[in-house]
Amino acid sequence: MRPISPAAPIPGMSLATIATLAMVVGLGSGCSISPAAERSVPTGVDVSQPTGTSPTATSRELEAFDQGPIFHILAGEFYGREKNYDQAAMHYAEVAKNSNDAAVLERAIQAAIFADRFDLAQELGERLRGLAPGNARAAAVMMISSLELGETEQADRALNQWLESDSGNVEKIFNETGQYLQKSLERERAVAYTHHLAERFPQQYEAQVVVAKLALSFGEMTLAREAASRAMSLRPDETMAYDLAMVIANRDGDVQQAIRVLEKAHNRFPDQGRYASGLIEARLAAGENESALALLERTLQIRPNDPELLRNVSLFAFRLDRPDLAEQALARLERLPGQSDVVHLIRGRVALQEADLAAAESALSRVSARSEHYANAQVLLAGARVDQGEPDAARRGLETALLSEEIDEADQQQLMLALASTLAQSGRFEESLDIADQAIDAWPDASDFRLQKAMTLFALDESGSAISVLRELIERDPEHAPALNALGYTLADEDRSLDEAEDLIGRALHIDPDNPAYLDSLGWLKYRQGDVQAALKALRSAYRSAPNAEIGAHLGEVLWVDGQRDAALGVWQESLKLDADDTTLLDTLRQYAPELVPADGQP
């Protein structure tokens, strides 16, 4: 939120008087209505919070002033700081209703929005529009207030006025409208208005793009596909619509639709390497190896100089068991300026996939410490050494890499995180915690170290401390999906606070809807809640996307409880082949099918 405009003080009051009275009650020059993070609104409505506030006023001190305009302004600021938005809105409205100062009206509108007094915000917006008929902020306020009040026709009129008053920023207006619908409006109304926007603006490219994005986020896949298709038809030379259509097809799991979109995009934009590599990958995913190989060969024949395309092509060639083509792509890539390090990295990754540690060591050790790929190469090496049963060599390698004077802060963080993880994997939990704490002290905002610390505490059976760390992480970073999922899964696994667990896992899935780990957590939660069919749906989706032993353990248990015992045994047998040492799987087998536990997996 911005302070009262010094260029336009309230009539009859000097700037000096305002400043003096503000200092008396300790408000300084700042304002304290809640920051924008609490409600997402179009930027046409300014809700930023300036610095410099030193709040010490009390309601008793405020009562000492005559209840004139300055009293209401100071009271509005005081109640805003106390998060009593109803009172803040009331006091600001008292001034705004009799003021011709646009800045005062805008401030009062902010308070009304945070108080969820959309009727008042609408009234003040009408007054602001009367003072300044072409004011885009007034139109934006009228639109969001009308949406909140369920007045669709009024919202439509306000959106039209907003578009007219700021006709040079059509894309910005629709993007901000979409942001409000996604983040602030009640979901059912937001979905309904998204459908309404699609029908109102069928020939408006910017509107259809926003509708496609919103529909995707709301899971309205039919609408998402239709809007993306309209956008492609409206502007066939714009890449955004093609990119959206590909994301939608991938979310739907419709590989053939992804191929169709990528073919159109590749034909329309033959110089865009991402469409060529995307089409090769999609054909591989569909099992169309021959057509994927043919496109790969044609791509190499045109002698591309796109580094990203050459990187992808080399990896696809390895997947197709064509090392000759992979080397052709890598040789061309290596000739491009600044690409030798990434070539060493790719060769090292491929060697690791083939379990050739010596070749991996040779390639990865050639990645320069000055390279942006250095930390990644060292982390890959450490992981390989741990997998080979050489945790001490992994630790020493990471510690040596950290001593390099050529790495930057981002590399330091990546290497320290890998070191903490390596120590934990090798059972040196206290040392891992020490590294995590050092990193947290050095980089308080680097959330992944808190997550690593929590995981280490879980390994030490210190669940309470781990949960506290996760709660602190989420408080600092509310959009940290891995932490949201970890805490939600923990609560579900411990069969407590299941409503909170559902909220946490839901937030993680909203950020990353297709993440198999989060789907596993959802399935396990539904199992704890007694909804076996919902549990099976989520767990099957997770296991299909990323078959691993822990998800298999969960899916098998729910199948067993549902009476599908042969299916459960089949999943557990597959999971043992994936990882016979997984503790979750072994614990599950001991409870339900001890005959499947390997001889060396007994307690």
Question: What composes the largest sheet?
Answer: none
State the fourth-level CATH superfamily of the domain at 337-472. Tetratricopeptide repeat domain
Structural classification? mainly alpha
Tally of helical segments: 33
Mean pLDDT: 84
In the predicted model, the low-confidence regions spanning at least 5 consecutive residues are: 1-41, 43-57
N/C terminus separation: 61 Å
CATH class of the domain at 337-472: Mainly Alpha
Please compute the radius of gyration using only Cα atoms. 29 Å
Task: Please name the CATH architecture of the domain at 337-472.
Answer: Alpha Horseshoe
Strand content: under 5%
The helix content, as a percent range, equals over 70%
Overall body shape: globular
- The total strand number stands at 0
Query: What is the third-level CATH name, the topology of the domain at 337-472?
Result: Serine Threonine Protein Phosphatase 5, Tetratricopeptide repeat
Which structural traits does this protein have?
603 residues; mainly alpha; Serine Threonine Protein Phosphatase 5, Tetratricopeptide repeat; 33 helices; 71% helix; globular; disordered N terminus
Quick description:
This protein has 603 residues and is an all-alpha fold. Helices cover 71% and strands 0% of the residues.
Describe this structure in words.
It holds the Pfam family TPR_19. Residues 38-59 are annotated as: Disordered. InterPro entries: TPR-like_helical_dom_sf, TPR_rpt. This is Tetratricopeptide repeat protein. Residues 46-59 have a biased composition (Polar residues). The protein has helices spanning 15-24, 59-63, 69-81, 85-96, 102-114, 118-131, 136-148, 152-165, 170-183, 187-200, 205-218, 221-234, 239-252, 255-268, 273-285, 289-301, 307-319, 323-335, 340-353, 357-364, 374-387, 391-402, 409-425, 429-442, 447-459, 463-476, 481-493, 498-511, 516-528, 532-545, 549-561, 565-578, 583-592. With 603 residues, the protein is an all-alpha fold. Among the domains are: 253-336, Alpha Horseshoe (Serine Threonine Protein Phosphatase 5, Tetratricopeptide repeat); 337-472, Tetratricopeptide repeat domain (Serine Threonine Protein Phosphatase 5, Tetratricopeptide repeat), CATH 1.25.40.10. The chain is globular, with a radius of gyration of 29 Å.
